[in-house]
Amino acid sequence: MNHTNSLVIASGNAGKIKELQALLPNYELIPQTQFNVSEIEETGTTFVENAILKARHAARISKLPAIADDSGLVVAALNDAPGIYSARYAGLGATDAENIAKLLHVLEGVPIAERHAYFFCVLVLMRHADDPCPLIAQGRWDGCILEQPSGENGFGYDPIFGVSTHHCSAAELPFEIKNSLSHRGKALMSLSTLLSRI
Ligand code: ITT
């Protein structure tokens, strides 16, 4: 296989991989499983640390440039939880539905005016495992936590993330519209600027 313009994507999340591939049409994103890269424990305390851990691990094992996405939902009324623990909010291996149910439960009775939240995404691109200058980009998408899930598109917390500009949930947005508004789309724009400089 010719690996020019190929990047190993250090993720096991199919929703993320689909969005990132659409946002990076000039690159072929190769899932890390094709190189037998196992999921690494996310021991960092910030999105940046965890994204670096994931990208470095994938680059080390695949011996190719790797890109990682660490992202999550930050809820003001919950002291910024679930944050970096978004994927495992309802426990290790929790499904999206279980994470959503837990979040709705802990926010029960909290009025809409106090349900502000934002998605945050950090993308890290490492040219090799010992890259001393990884490219790091971030993006944020502000919204609120709805009282009930709505919509079928997207993944994760999309059904309960209210998009005030479009008066719907993120899961009701068409794929391209979500990518044009989202934390991931914004991080990718910023990463593309960094890439164009090297
Ligand atoms: P990888 O580490 O393998 O990439 P992961 O799902 O464990 O997959 P994270 O640790 O970065 O990834 O956790 C991100 C979680 O945040 C994800 O599982 C969703 O629950 C949530 N999330 C991130 N971006 C989202 C989006 O665009 N829409 C909905 N939920 C999102």
Characterization of the model:
The chain has 198 residues and is α/β, with parallel strands linked by helices. The chain is built from five helices and seven strands. The chain has a seven-stranded mixed sheet. Helix 4 (175-181) crosses helix 5 (183-196). The structure holds inosine 5'-triphosphate (ITT). Residues 11-13, 16, 39, 42, 69-73, 86-87, 99, 119, 154-158, 182, 184 line the site of inosine 5'-triphosphate.
Q: How would you sum up the global shape?
A: globular
Number of E strands: 7
Strands side by side in the biggest sheet: 2-1-3-4-5-6-7
Helical stretch count? 5
What gyration radius follows from the Cα positions, in whole Å? 17 Å
Briefly note the structural class of the backbone: alpha/beta
Integer average pLDDT: 96
User: What is the terminal-to-terminal distance?
Assistant: 24 Å
The run of helices and strands is: EHEHEHEEEEHH
